[in-house]
Amino acid sequence: MLAVIELGGNQFTVQAGDVIEVKHQDVSVDSVMTVKALLISDLDGKNVKVGTPVLEDSKIELKVLDQFKWEKVRVFKMKSKKRYSRNKGFRPEVTELEVLSIA
Fold it and tell me: How do the domains of the chain map onto residue ranges?
């Protein structure tokens, strides 16, 4: 089974056993969270169910593996010929999830 889910404003195509990194979710490590799918399909694409916007009878179980800070992202601004430049950076928080089952 193949599913499209939405977490943190981003959409992900997942299968059972996949490990994905999403924006920080407020859940504890080693807990299981469930989300609803936007689309569910077979691997060959013959049986497709599309939600409006989500499928009410769908259930995707995700296990929280880790929560950590990602590598530093640089934000550089410059205006030419004005002697203006700013250099900032931040490390976004990331949650690592494993897909347990798609139903």
Answer: 2-67+94-102
